[in-house]
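User: Can you recover a sequence for this backbone? Please restate the input before giving your answer.

Assistant: Of course. Working from this structure:
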């Protein structure tokens, strides 16, 4: 039995890119970013959005009714089928309300996992970024969308929204997203959240709009773990209420403006089952 287990372990190690050394290194973002295609399906989410992976991911097309994907060279427009369907349905809903094509930013890598830059989450195929550029957009090639720049909707000191850029249409788009079926939460800069509270305090959809660092030029959509994914780890439902309370004031304190240091010691380990996702052929 002992020899059989050793043989099985050796086989699993050789399946990973780079052999046995890579098996000890599945938490390295470079390993996940180097994989160009998804692991075979069916869809399977392992772990949480900030420490996990996905098999059976599907790709959001670069173009569709109501959207154009940006920076496609990053190869980060993969997700669980539920996430890709949500983006497509939301783009169609926005188009029906008269919005121009939406710029769709990163979802996840083909097998999820950590990224070398840009995000700490987006690891399990249930996150997507939607940019706040609401101007009319002629159809363009993916290559023409590699260096798109979007203005911040927030003042430099983050004390409030920038009236030169923030409009009623941004409020309408955020609300439309927050009211879509299947969404868990929507992250925006805390200044945007405060402005939404000023205009719509007490309304139920605000519960799903949560403040977070950055997110001044895009909104971050997160879905809950889809049904039938027992290895997927949710982060818990948003707190009760509209979120328009004293907790928003914390974001303007010195403590909030300091990045939270990583605790001493080795970084958290990826779920062991993600080794098989990374190495699957």
């Amino acid at each position: 039995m002992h020899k059989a287990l050793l043989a099985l372990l050796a086989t699993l190690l050789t399946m990973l890119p780079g052999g046995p050394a890579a098996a000890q290194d599945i938490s390295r973002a470079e390993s996940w970013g180097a994989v160009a295609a998804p692991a075979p399906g069916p869809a399977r989410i392992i772990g949480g959005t900030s420490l996990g992976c996905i098999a059976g991911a599907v790709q959001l097309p670069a173009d569709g009714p109501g959207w154009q994907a940006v920076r496609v060279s990053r190869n980060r427009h993969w997700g669980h089928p539920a996430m890709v369907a949500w983006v497509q349905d939301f783009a169609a809903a926005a188009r029906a309300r008269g919005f121009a094509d939406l710029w769709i930013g990163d979802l996840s890598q083909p097998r999820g996992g950590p990224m070398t830059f840009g995000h700490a989450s987006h690891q399990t195929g249930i996150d997507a970024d939607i940019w706040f550029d609401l101007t009319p957009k002629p159809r363009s090639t993916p290559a023409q969308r590699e260096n798109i720049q979007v203005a911040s909707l927030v003042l430099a000191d983050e004390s409030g929204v920038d009236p030169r850029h923030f409009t009623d249409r941004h409020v309408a788009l955020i609300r439309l997203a927050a009211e879509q079926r299947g969404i868990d939460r929507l992250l925006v800069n805390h200044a945007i959240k405060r402005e939404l509270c000023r205009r719509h305090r007490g309304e139920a959809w605000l519960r799903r709009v949560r403040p977070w660092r950055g997110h001044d030029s895009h909104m971050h959509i997160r879905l809950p773990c889809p049904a039938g994914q027992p290895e997927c780890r949710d982060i818990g439902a948003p707190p009760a209420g509209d979120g328009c309370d004293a907790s928003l004031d914390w974001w303007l304190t010195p403590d909030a403006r300091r990045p939270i240091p990583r605790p001493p010691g080795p970084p958290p380990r990826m779920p062991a089952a993600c080794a098989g996702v990374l190495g699957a052929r």
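That completes the design. Residues 1-24 have pLDDT under 50 and may be disordered.
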